[in-house]
Amino acid sequence: MSIKTRQGSESQILAVGAYRPKRLVPNSEIVDRIESSDEWIQQRTGIESRRFADESESLLDMAIWAAEDALKNAKLTIDDIDTVVVATITFPFQAPSAATALLQRMGNPKAAAFDINAACAGFCYAVSMAHDFVKAGTSKKVLVIGAEKISDFTDPSDRATAFIFADGAGAVIIGESQEAGIGPVVWGSDADSRDAIQMNPSWIDVRDTETQLTKADIKWPNISQEGQKVFRWAVFSMSKAALKALEAAGLTVNDIDAFIPHQANVRIIETMAKEMDMPSSVIIADDIRKNGNTSAASIPLAMDALLDQHPELHGKLALIIGYGAGLVYAGQVVKLPPKP
Amino acid sequence: MALAQADVLAGLKEIVEEVAGIPAASIELDKNFTEDLEVDSLSMVEVVVACEERFGVKIPDEKVTDLVTVGDAVNFIVNASN
Prior knowledge:
The complex is a heterodimer of chains A (340) and B (82). Chain A has helices at 27-30, 38-45, 59-74, 98-106, 122-136, 203-208, 227-248, 266-275, 288-291, 298-309, and strands at residues 10-19, 23-26, 49-52, 83-87, 112-116, 141-149, 167-177, 186-189, 197-200, 222-225, 258-261, 283-284, 317-324, 328-335. Chain A has 340 residues and is α/β, with parallel strands linked by helices. Chain A folds into two domains: 10-177, Thiolase/Chalcone synthase (Peroxisomal Thiolase, Chain A, domain 1, 3-Layer(aba) Sandwich); 186-335, Peroxisomal Thiolase, Chain A, domain 1, CATH 3.40.47.10. In chain A, the strands form four sheets. In chain A, strands 1-7-6-4-5 form a five-stranded mixed sheet, with helices on both faces. In chain A, strands 8-14-13-11-12 form a five-stranded mixed sheet, sandwiched between helices. Helix content of chain B is 56%, strand content 0%. Chain B has helices spanning 5-20, 41-55, 61-64, 70-80. In chain B, helix 1 packs across helix 2 and helix 1 packs across helix 4 (70-80). In chain B, 28% of the residues are buried. At the A-B interface, helix 7 of A face helix 2 of B.
């Protein structure tokens, strides 16, 4: 007896959705605690402001609002979704997952649901998985969400990170397509550099010091990073990975219409584009300037913002690439969703 | 064979001018990258990577902070090429 298997199809992004926290925080509001200046932050990162979620905007709330926006744009409901993947590193519960919490609140408690941790590359990892699920016939409509409330895990006095990270959520729906709408993923890691971006200490360390948590010297698992090391890896290794993602899709920089890299730092984005000889005809996402680095949420948020600013990009080709703590990365070419 | 100091300095001047827009004429061995030339930490990474490609040497991340002056960088590259 042989095992019967499923047959899937090509996939595409049907729609994108976003939720940005209400509170916009300009550099002037955070510079005193890190003894910095608006000019210094803008020169190093291009960031003018970021958004921080408040108590009425939990990570789960933001994920749901981004999902609702994507569903509305796709003219679908949560009942049409058979698989939910949430990419996040800041959901404050080890278990159960943010994905199941979302389904419970949105009223479809039966779909397959799980979270993944690939840090700032999480969205592109999840897009790759969703594509493979559709192609294998495992899923027909996958809700992919990148959601982060990094302000809960950032030390506001840390001079290396306090001005970079931000909160928000972005979502896409990935479904069946006659033509290829998502190219092959190019992904991997540089696990020897795990210490370049971290959240420390571990929960075990927190537990063992919990009786002293009120003391100022006990650390919370906040994010930290070695800026120069990450910059070097991001610019020089990620531009090569991004070119490989183009090559895997049978394309070159001259064939794409938009470049939507993880919104880590404007200097990284600009230097990557230079390294890749990106022609001026390619529109480059720079959502980070206003909204900061939202880790796994940054690419769908930047995609949403870019389509708002350039509606002519609907249905056009974009190169996306995420990279972050691990160090891990993933990139692929996607066809941007059609106009809602 | 070790690279000549003069050749490394000439190449480094071109790289710093290209990356940070600082005129080559103002780049001398005793100049401090941060204080005199205002090359920030991220531009320094670009300079280092360009030096690696041009001179065929490896400059590890942990060494970058030791390269305070132009002379430090030139000496490191000359020694690494030896």
